[in-house]
Amino acid sequence: MSNTERTELKARRVAFDWSATPLHWLPGDPATTHTINVLHLLLPAGERWFVHVYKQVLPQIRDPELRKDVIGFIGQEAVHSQAHDDVLPHLKRLGLDPTPYTAQVDWFFEKLLGDRTLPPGRPRQWWLMERVALIAAIEHYTAFLGNWVLNAEALDRKGADPVMLDLLRWHGAEEVEHRSVAFDLFMHVDGGYRRRVRTWALAFTALVFLWQRGARFFMENDPTLVDGRAGFREFLRAGRQGVLPTAGSMLRSIPTYLSRDYHPSQECSTAQAVAYLATSPGANGRPQTAGSPAADSSKEAAR
User: Fold this and answer.
1) What is the largest CA-CA distance in the chain?
2) What is the distance between the alpha carbons of residues 108 and 115, in angstroms, rounded to a whole number?
3) Do 24 and 223 form a contact (C-beta atoms < 8 A)?
4) If we measure between CA atoms, which residue out of 215, 208, 211 comes closest to residue 229?
5) pLDDT tens-place values along the chain, 303 residues long
6) Residues in contact with 31: Cβ distance below 8 Å, sequence separation at least 6, in sequence order
């Protein structure tokens, strides 16, 4: 992270009150609601995995500033995992039990991408570097999504639940804030271009696969829908309306990451992220409900 972009990374004491958040928190649009809700299914296990892997690689970090950033990153990711995990009981109370799907996600991160019984030395180091590179690729997309949600004014215009929107924007702002850490760590301990390309392909494929499965699971199990289905047509429609990223913007992000000159500091705005974090009710431990003055002020900070 360049000096002009560097900011002290810290885990914030967040608080969100879900008591008034409806099942379809984007009014009249269950498909978009549930597409974004997949975050609550993927992130708790995924970010616990990030933390687990990074604790293993900490002894290999020789740069004291990078080590400090990685420790801050670990703290933020742990809070992200817990905050999204806290949404799941609320969904269950509303009649949508996410357990069958979250069990699959847990298996993916804990078993498929978890620690393996490998001999010490090169085999064990190879598997650790593969996972460090995977995290760098995933973080490219979490920063992409964070930047998108900070600027997605269509969600405000559509009347999105302010608590859910604050959760998404707090998380998105922190993803922008620490967007360079995973890539800098990968470049510090390995940096191989072929590994970057290979792990990007795996990360992108896995994210698309898991996301469409999660959206389909939510739509099919939503107790308020008779024949709920998630499809690509709905995704394209939401992109045109600005309530989801467009397919074009997602595709354009691919050559960006694969460029040999890529660095995350070239993307997004740290100043915008920090400004939102300064006023976010949830990020400052002030639970809000729909219609509160704090909800309105946090909307303005995201713009």
Assistant:
1) 57
2) 12
3) no
4) 215
5) 444 467 899 999 999 999 999 999 999 999 999 999 999 999 999 999 999 999 999 999 999 999 999 999 999 999 999 999 999 999 999 999 999 999 999 999 999 999 998 888 899 999 999 999 999 999 999 999 999 999 999 999 999 999 999 999 999 999 999 999 999 999 999 999 999 999 999 999 999 999 999 999 999 999 999 888 888 899 999 999 999 999 999 999 999 999 999 999 999 999 999 999 999 999 998 887 655 544 454 555 555
6) 215, 219, 230, 234, 235, 238
